Amino acid sequence: MIAISQIGVPLMVIAVALQWWSRTDRAHVRHACLSAGLSFLLGLAINQVILLFVHRIRPYDAGVTHLLITPSADWSFPSDHATASMAIVAAFAMQALPRRTLALLVVAVLICWSRLHIGIHYAGDIVGGAVTGIAAALAVRLCYRENSRLDAFATKIL
Questions:
Q1: How far is the first Cα of the chain from the last one, in angstroms, to the nearest whole number?
Q2: Cβ neighbours, 10 Å, residue 138
């Protein structure tokens, strides 16, 4: 669980990046990759705003759990790991790529579970992070349209 917690999100990012060279439905998959990246970044930016107003101590500081890794310096709510992983999953889900979405969802759930298991988050932190990630993906879906001029330019890179 410690390893999943530490390398899960970077592995998801690598998995999304590798999708860039997909042989099937290349333009659509590339749009999904860009949407996932934008959702990831927007979700983490939203978390930084939330952290300005919500100061929830971590469960190990409250004596609720026993920490299995080094302590974190920031507040507990919302979970950045949950936000990042669920933003990626939601972005792929909104592009109607079911196999890729399912594979990414399995990894995201493992990441979220690992954050609970190692004692660094409450369940509410995970749910809050997931909601933030999904909201970010929805916002990206509304603003970044497939087959727009920007999308056509961006998906032709490489």
A1: 36
A2: 15
Residue 144, Cα to own-chain centre: how many angstroms?
Answer: 18
Integer Cα distance of 92 and 5 in angstroms: 21
What are the tens digits of pLDDT across the range 86-121? 999 999 999 999 999 999 999 999 999 999 999 889
Residue carrying the six token digits 């998995």: 15
DSSP codes joined into one string, the chain: -HHHHHHHHHHHHHHHHHGGG-SSSHHHHHHHHHHHHHHHHHHHHHHHHHHHH--PPPTTTTTSS--SSPPPSS-SSSPHHHHHHHHHHHHHHHTT-HHHHHHHHHHHHHHHHHHHHTTS--HHHHHHHHHHHHHHHHHHHHHS-TTSHHHHHHHT--
Helices 80-94/26-53 angle, 10° precision: 150
